[in-house]
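re: that chain from earlier
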Amino acid sequence: MQLNEHFLGLHGSYLFSEIARRVNLFLEMEPDAQLIRMGIGDVTRPLAPAIVEAMHCAVDEMGQSETFRGYGPEKGYRFLREQIIKHDFLARGISLSP
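^ sequence. v structure.
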């Protein structure tokens, strides 16, 4: 068996391990910080029913040529950014522009 020459060029760190390392380092430096963890997620609990329903709707949209979106823009869809601002940030008193 021949080793793929590109294998040796791979980084030695796994993305989630690197995220965890950086989060832990930040929390050591800022122990009172309230951190919203958006990197890895919590896979110890099932998805909320609203999330499951939204994912089913999104899959149905992606399965039809009339509603297929493909990859989103690099900053995300405007409608999604607006909803995140409305339901997450405004409730915390943070005003943002989508």
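The mean pLDDT is 89.
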